[in-house]
Amino acid sequence: MIAKTRSRKIEMVHYQYSGNKHDVIAGIGLVNLLWHDLTSVESIPIDYRIYDKDSDGKTKNTHFSEMLALAKKRGIMPEAVVMDAWYSSLDNLKSIRSHGWVWVTTLRKNRIVNHNTSFAPIKKRSIFKFNSA
After folding, report:
1. Residue 111 has what DSSP assignment?
2. Cα(1)–Cα(17) distance, rounded to whole angstroms?
3. Consecutive 10-residue averages of pLDDT for the chain (133 residues)
């Protein structure tokens, strides 16, 4: 989220939870997709979306799925999709799997997980990172 705490009448400013402030503040919602290279430790922006449900009716999860699909269409092939627990819904995890990718995230304690021991180690040197600013 881009904080706009002093803004009174700017379009797209809504009260939203800020992970940085650990509180609900006024700001513009931003969803980022970054390519992160583990060798050089560089992060490169691949895509971003303004989260403004009032104007387009899309949730952050909808933006998430659309950005993944567009990245796949562009031929981008990450070793893993790394994301905040906010994006760990079953639909999002299935979306990642449908592209043939693996995911890495923290899970909320109310998630039920099928413990599968057939995990493949991450070998390549690049990953996607999702970030809600």
Report:
1. -
2. 8
3. 65 71 77 85 87 85 93 91 86 90 83 62 53 55
CA–CA separation, 7 and 101 (whole Å)? 40
- Say if residues 45 and 33 touch (Cβ distance below 8 Å): yes
Q: Measured between alpha carbons, how far apart are the two ends of the chain, in Å?
A: 4
Rounded CA gap, 49 and 116, in Å?
33
3-class state of residue 15 by DSSP? strand
Whether residue 47 contacts residue 78, with contact meaning beta carbons closer than 8 Å, is answered with no
CB burial of residue 113 (10 Å; 0-12, 13-18, 19+): exposed
Whether the Cβ atoms of residue 66 and residue 43 lie closer than 8 Å to each other? no
Is residue 71 helix, strand or coil?
helix
Is the pTM higher than 0.85? The answer reads no
